[in-house]
Design goal:
191 residues, alpha+beta, two-stranded antiparallel ribbon, 5 helices
Length: 191
C-alpha cells in the first residue's frame, strides 16, 4: 500500500499597503553629442587630404570631450592628412603646441603633412580681423584662399544673428576693459 501525504500550508500574514507613495524622478541619461567636421577628399581614391576642425566648447573644456579630440588630433597629425584647426572660442585652454607662449583670442593652425612637425599658426585678437590662409591640399593642387572673416560675416548676416543675439548681455568669458569699450563703440555704430 502506498501512502500519499498532502500538506497544506496556510499563512495568515497580513500584508499592509505601502505608507509612502513613490516620487517620479528623472535619472541622468548618457548625452550623445554629435560633432561636425569637414574633410577634403581625393575624388579618385576617397582618401582624406585635409581635415578641417572648427573647435567647439566640448573640444576645449577639460574632460572626456577634450581628451577624445586630442586623440583624434594626434591620429591626424600622425597620418598623411593635412590639418586645419580653427579656434574661435576665447574661453578655455588652447590646444597644445610645443614651446608656444603665444596668447591670442583666436587661432587657426594649418599643419601641412609634408612640413610636420612645423605648422603655421595664425593668431588674432579682438578687434582685429580674422585671418586669411591657404587651404592645404596635395602638393600638385592649387590651394584656395580661405577668407575666414568673410565667411563668418556672411554666415552672421544670412543667419540673422544681429536679431537673435542679445548684445545687452555680458559676453562669456568677459571682455577686457579695452575690448569692452571697443565692443560698445562698435554696437553704437551698427545701430
Amino acid at each position: 500500500m502506498q501512502y500519499q501525504k498532502t500538506f497544506q500550508i496556510s499563512s495568515k500574514v497580513a500584508v499592509a499597503s505601502p505608507t509612502t507613495k513613490p516620487v517620479t524622478v528623472i535619472v541622468p541619461m548618457p548625452e550623445e553629442i554629435k560633432q561636425g567636421y569637414l574633410e577634403v577628399r581625393d575624388m579618385t581614391t576617397g582618401a582624406v587630404v585635409t581635415a578641417i576642425e572648427v573647435l567647439s566648447p566640448v573640444n576645449k573644456r577639460s574632460g572626456e570631450g577634450r581628451e577624445t579630440y586630442l586623440k583624434k588630433r594626434q591620429r591626424v597629425l600622425g597620418s598623411l592628412t593635412n590639418l586645419v584647426e580653427i579656434d574661435l572660442l576665447r574661453g578655455w585652454k588652447p590646444m597644445p603646441l610645443l614651446d608656444n607662449t603665444i596668447e591670442s583670442d583666436y587661432r587657426v593652425l594649418v599643419s601641412r603633412e609634408e612640413h610636420r612637425p612645423r605648422a603655421e599658426l595664425y593668431t588674432c585678437n579682438l578687434p582685429e580681423q580674422l585671418p586669411t590662409f591657404s587651404l592645404p591640399l596635395r602638393p600638385e593642387d592649387s590651394e584656395p584662399i580661405v577668407d575666414l572673416q568673410g565667411i563668418i560675416s556672411s554666415v552672421y548676416e544670412r543667419g540673422g544673428y544681429d536679431y537673435q543675439l542679445d548684445y545687452d548681455q555680458e559676453p562669456v568669458p568677459a571682455l577686457s576693459e579695452t575690448n569692452r569699450i571697443w565692443a560698445k563703440e562698435l554696437l553704437k555704430t551698427a545701430i
